[in-house]
Amino acid sequence: MTEWTKNGKRSFVVKVPKSHHIKEFELLLRQMLIHYQVPVKTEVKEIPIEIKCKCGYCGEAKSSDPTDVIKLLCPSCNKNNGKVISGKNIEVV
After folding, report:
1. Long-range contacts: 85-88, Cβ < 8 Å, 24+?
2. 83 is in which domain, residue-wise?
3. What does pTM read for this prediction?
4. Which of 22, 37, 84, 85 is the most exposed place for a label (fewest CB within 10 A)?
5. CB 47 within 8 A of CB 89
6. pLDDT tens for residues 31-82?
7. Is residue 55, in this structure, part of any structural domain at all?
């Protein structure tokens, strides 16, 4: 991250797949930047997680109960039979 400040970059956006823990991620990122004294501003954006389900549905997945382990459910059949086709990586831009 220090390379960004050396190259004149003063802010960046982190694109994170939708999850129930986005606030914790933002807090951890800010604490890390403060700890390592990296003088940049950050913005965290959620990106949708899209699946292709065995039932034929292709689109944004819905998440299970946040108190449970996160499972991606198909909104059409309400099952965990989908393959993630986009939104599984964290991007820094």
Report:
1. 85/50, 85/51, 85/52, 85/58, 86/48, 86/49, 86/50, 87/17, 87/18, 87/47, 87/48, 87/49, 87/50, 88/17, 88/49
2. 49-87
3. 0.70
4. 37
5. no
6. 999 998 888 888 999 898 899 999 999 999 887 665 555 678 899 999 988 8
7. yes
